[in-house]
């Protein structure tokens, strides 16, 4: 598994075998395109832990093996180019080193913490300013569509949107965060990430997925719920989170971004302009009624603060609603 220079990558590839430089630890995760392990460098003696994503160039497919390797290389080059261009940003996992072998590519990155779902309790307690500071950085990547926005540490599904025709086609990403057009596998552009952004913030605020079919871990059932808009989101905390109070502005804006028509959906650039200065954030944590627009009619839901005797009516507009959203997973390993 020694390195070769047969592929041009934007990150410096190192000579020697990966195993000679890094000691491999526990498995952190696995996906359709590779596995992730915890690693530490052997030569420096430092105990700093990193992670490595191991991607197989091709399976043993006989006569079509060479074409499969070529296709995989193109896909990997696209992934590493986007990853490298984004990794300098603090909101993305840093890509540190690349090792290229005959059968595998090793992408060494910084090691992060738990997943979004594992961090819901902590995230729901974040301050207003902390959430807004995070989203301001995440929205900088308006020129590329991630298409798997659950985490900004895995760019395997990422792609640049071409100027002509101006959209991409297909179904990519994690089912609970898919936009309606993505779930249908129809044409999609940057606006699909705005929906996924809102779906991610919904998880942070309410502790469950935007759509909850009878089998929430069944991707096909989840996509069907998204496509048919049924059962509709409740905008209510999980039962075990009922004692927590939701920030009104955050929930209101989440609803505003859940526009089912991609052409009518707010863009990332427009959203950036709506981020207020920290001194302008009210941070109200009280009862409210959420009304989210869409081509199939508004969502109507209600969340009451135990201390509030009345429910405030909220009708958000693009002009007066601050942007409170988060476009990727705070921590996690690809």
UniProtKB/TrEMBL annotation:
It holds the Pfam family Pkinase. The gene is CaMKII. GO terms for cellular component: cytoplasm; nucleus. Residues 22-278 form the Protein kinase domain. PANTHER family: OVARIAN-SPECIFIC SERINE/THREONINE-PROTEIN KINASE LOK-RELATED, PROTEIN KINASE DOMAIN-CONTAINING PROTEIN. GO terms for molecular function: ATP binding; protein serine/threonine kinase activity. ATP binds at residue 53. Keywords: ATP-binding, Kinase, Nucleotide-binding, Transferase. The keyword ATP-binding applies. It comes from the Eukaryota. One of its GO terms (biological process) is mitotic DNA damage checkpoint signaling. InterPro entries: Kinase-like_dom_sf, Prot_kinase_dom, Protein_kinase_ATP_BS. This is Calcium/calmodulin-dependent protein kinase type II alpha chain.
